[in-house]
Amino acid sequence: DTAVSQTPKYLVTQMGNDKSIKCEQNLGHDTMYWYKQDSKKFLKIMFSYNNKELIINETVPNRFSPKSPDKAHLNLHINSLELGDSAVYFCASATQTRDEAFFGQGTRLTVV
Amino acid sequence: ILNVEQSPQSLHVQEGDSTNFTCSFPSSNFYALHWYRWETAKSPEALFVMTLNGDEKKKGRISATLNTKEGYSYLYIKGSQPEDSATYLCACKTSYDKVIFGPGTSLSVIP
Q: Residue A81: pLDDT above 60?
């Protein structure tokens, strides 16, 4: 069983569309994250959710919104997609105590 | 501004060579230092989590040390193998929950 799974793996969409990327973890972790891999391959944290509360909200555009229906899911909604949103987005989860992050396989978003 | 640096940016070694990389991070508000191994077309996998000054961790041929007072961590690979080829990331977590990744060191082990 995949510990952290993201869907879809690839997403190609037009500018102006609204899209979602789903993330689920079956590890029982209490914290989930969204990261963006930028054009220089750096991993930049976007959001962190702990027990369904947002505890970090980096300076990302408010077109991006995390939605956590329960502790095992943290979905990423993106409104009015722009060309610059094209990137690989990684979901991850961790425990507060152990702290190391387990990553999903990434979603490559291409906005055309 | 918090910045995590890694050096070298890339490294090519022969199979059997031992190698090491450096991660430097701000020592103020330090909480934890993570090392990850990231193979192409895969997702990052955690190697070590270290929190205390002087921590040393080992997993097989890979080991890491931590100096929180001066703000650096070393990752060592003994007797590199082709399957060690990957990007090695370090990430610093601060006491107020901010996580910052370094740019990574890309290692290629030549058979």
A: yes
